[in-house]
Batch of 2 targets.
Target 1
Amino acid sequence: NGYELLGELGRGAFGTVELCERRGDLYAVKILRKSLLRKARTGRGRGANALADARREIAIMKKLDHANLVGLVEAVDDEKAGKLYLVLEYVDCGPVLERRKGGDPPYVAIDAVAARAACRDVLRGLEYLHASGVVHLDVKPENVLLTSGGVAKLCDFGVSRLARGDAGDAAVFASTPAFSAPELCGYGAGSAAAP
């Protein structure tokens, strides 16, 4: 669709995130290999796979529009190439905290003033998500991006869900365990629901 790929921003289990440009504007494009997505089972029901999760991510992102959430520009399903492209708003400063490989401390920190502002922005984004009936489920430092203007934006809606008000749904949610949403504590395979 007229995007020129400029270089890799990151890599995940099912594809890459590339910096791209179209008509002078920069974007991030998440490029997912559909063959890998079809093979990957998510553990969330019979026949569930990561391709269904990617399609749910697109559907959720299409309904969102907030200053503290990374926006979806467009999604392209290229059957011929076997890839799914999610063209996203480019956030120029990257993660609010970057994980160091083998570093001590494990994260590159930001100052207290910037941390307070980022927390405020994340809470605003979460408030909007919850009012929209969406639960993010994977809020962690790598999924909070900063703009050069100091605005924090939540990204990666890959495990997000539309809230249904049914606590039983919590057992099928997957997120990064250390950053699991408080509403999921006490739920999981083989465990009893919290009182």
Note: Residues 112-131 form the longest helix (20 residues).
Target 2
Amino acid sequence: MALVSIVTATYAGDDPQFLAQAIDSVIDQTHRPLQYLIAGDGPLPDVTRALIDARVSDHDWIELCPLPGPRGPAATRNEVLARCRGDYVAILDADDAMVPTRVSEQVRYLTEHGLDVVASWLEVMDPTGTEVGIRKFPETAAEVTAKAPFFCPTANTAVLFRRAVLPDFRYPKLAVGEDYRLWVDLLRRGRRIGNVPRPLTRYRTGS
């Protein structure tokens, strides 16, 4: 099976418990092989470093990438994307989680539909992890392109893309909306973006 690289950016302000759930959801993926890069945006608290080190020790395909910072999640992701070796690259935010079949389903869906980038619907959960709803996105590449001028047509934390997209996949330096701008930039370059029409990522909202 194809190697898939997964990137998570984290910093000192992230909840260690939420980060642990994110990492463990990657460990529980049914797809293998994986490369998991956890990008540390500046110094991390001892408790965070300890939980990451424990998982790195148990899984040789997980790597902590300490970076000077904090510089923000967009710049941090950009920095480690160059280290991705996979045929595909996936993004997961530090307070969210993948369902176990996310990677395998997205690789299959992307391939079957001739996409460059694929995400999915989101299972929205509150800070306690309780599901509070489903957030849907347009499915096909044509629908994503048509809706992009009006709202963000996919979710950053749910994205998986082909390695060939890496030269174009760079988050712009913006105060807000860097992911939305990235999707627009990719669409303008002719990249095809779609969404699996079911929730494959658990997205945590604030209180």
Note: The first helix runs from residue 16 to 27.
